[in-house]
Amino acid sequence: MNRPELLDRLRSHSGPWDLLIIGGGATGMGCAVDAASRGYQVALIEQDDFGKGTSSRSTKLAHGGVRYLEQGNISLVMEALKERGIMRENAPHLVGDLAFVVPNYAWWEAPFYGVGLRLYDVLAGKYGFGASRNLSKEETLERLPALKPEDLRGGVVYYDGQFDDARLLIHLAGTAVEQGAAIVNYCPAVSLLRNDSGMVVGAIARDGESGEEFEIRARAIINATGCFSDGVRRMADANAAPMVAPSQGVHLVFDGSFLRGDTAIMVPHTSDGRVMFAIPWHGHALVGTTDTAIDAVTLEPAPFDQEIEFILSTAGQYLAKPPARADILSAWAGIRPLVKSASGASTASLSRDHSIHIDPSGLLTIAGGKWTTYRHMAEDCVGQAAILAGLEERDCVTRHLRIHGYHHHASKFGHLEVHGADAIAIQEMIRSHPERGRQLHAALPYVEAEVIWAARWEMARTVEDVLSRRTRALLLNARAAATMAPRVAEILAGELGRGGSWQRDQVERFTQLASAYLPR
Ligand SMILES: Cc1cc2nc3c(=O)[nH]c(=O)nc-3n(C[C@H](O)[C@H](O)[C@H](O)COP(=O)(O)OP(=O)(O)OC[C@H]3O[C@@H](n4cnc5c(N)ncnc54)[C@H](O)[C@@H]3O)c2cc1C
Question: Which of 56, 57, 204, 225 to mutate to test the pocket of ligand 1 (most atoms within 8 A of CB)?
Fold first, then answer.
């Protein structure tokens, strides 16, 4: 993955591409992998970094969604459970199993959740991750020593999947490039091109680094811009009625000692009727999330104070060591691109199904869905885009397509596990230059070689790309990430041929960003 080369391909392509995808999150990148592996000519542009939007800010669960079961959306649960299994099969280095315990405090909870989770197992069928079962109070506390023991009667354990969202996205990007797609970050679509009949035939893109604008023509345009979908639709039709109802979700990250162990807690009904998770993630405790309808969308949504308070107080009801504001290592928000309902229902009750919409201009928009179902969404979307573009019909092949870095025993690489098979090359880099094995901060395992790797092979262009999405430092410990910024800027400047003022500017920007991840 080399940005200058890919940008060059994008600019110098002769004739129209088969498909142009706008948006480099899970949905757009999934479409790029799907379409390129069918043999179509594919271009993808992302306005910022890959995954800068919602796709790096999820709860990181590859799951069927126990809550959707309760809502009676069986088909969504079954589809997601199947996709969860396919995700683990094709990217075992990034998707793993995780045990969840639903703690029981009332007499009816054990039979109620026990039966519900048994149904979850049945729906997973051959894609099951492990059988659920009821636990005694002692077994529950053994698995979850961090749980408050008062009034606890027992629990139900069940299994779901966990993954690293931004890492999976970057490995999908690698897969898309291997399959022949031209994908470029920091390259927004600034307007759409239309022919005499008013149909969209391409976009004007801007290279965010040089400022140069250029045309990209394509037989069909896929708008996969998540919560920004309506903005892109309005580039084709200023009066397009909005289809996305944005809803914000917040996560707080704490030291791993708040959870202790490798089991997650699932609270099926918080005081606002939502599900809440406390999950072990990269040695830390990740707690969330909320569901707050919002009016305006931005690339850096900020947690609301009441969301932080709500998560802290809910966690405090269950954890023996209740976390306080001062314990927050990082707090961040993401925006769900939910598809609007005509009835004005609350965002928590809006369907997580995806929706494909074709405007009269021929612009195809795909929105909604879940990270877990990205592959299925892409199959559906590319199938429809191919018909719209009049392309030769070709079967989807992603069901058995291994994701870049595929490796079955990546855990042997320690924290480099998230690089999958690439960890071997990173280890080799460290062997040949031991100073590259230097840790960037004592609180996090990341080493200098990962910065070099990110710049050379993963299209990292800024300090934020490295510290937020190639590594997860910013989301795990914002203070430590800010301390790492000057050295990361120095290494990146060397790799990308940038000067001292670029370095200083990068550090300043990142320090400011990191302070927004630390609520006062
Ligand atoms: C709090 C929260 C928790 C979640 N947890 C889970 C979970 O545990 N499991 C799960 O399966 N799902 C989860 N989801 C859902 C999942 O994260 C989303 O469905 C998914 O990430 C959406 O991906 P996307 O590609 O559609 O959107 P995005 O990731 O937002 O990607 C859209 C991209 O389009 C780009 N863009 C916008 N305008 C332009 C333009 N003009 N030109 C070029 N690019 C443009 C943006 O920069 C952005 O990167 C969660 C969502 C939230 C908010």
Answer: 225
User: CB of 453 within 8 A of CB of 426?
Assistant: yes
Ligand 1 contact, 161 CB (< 6 A): no
DSSP 285: E
Pairwise CA distance, residues 428 & 21, whole Å? 36
133 forms beta bridges with 157
Terminal C-alpha separation, the chain = 39
Alpha carbon distance 120, 123 (integer Å): 5
pTM: 0.96
Tell me how far apart the alpha carbons of residues 230 and 367 are, in angstroms, rounded to a whole number. 10
Tell me the one-letter amino acid at 501.
S
**pLDDT confidence of residue 216:** 97
pLDDT per position as a tens digit, 357-381: 999 999 999 999 999 999 999 999 9
DSSP letter at 469 equals I
Using the predicted structure, report yes or no on whether residue 354 has a pLDDT greater than 90. no
pLDDT digits (tens, 9 = 90+) for 131-167: 999 999 999 999 999 999 999 999 999 999 999 999 9
Q: With contact defined as beta carbons under 8 Å apart, do 37 and 398 qualify? A: yes
Query: Rounded to the nearest 5 degrees, what angle is found at the Cα of 139, between the Cα atoms of 138 and 144?
Result: 95
- Which structure tokens are listed for 225? 């811009």
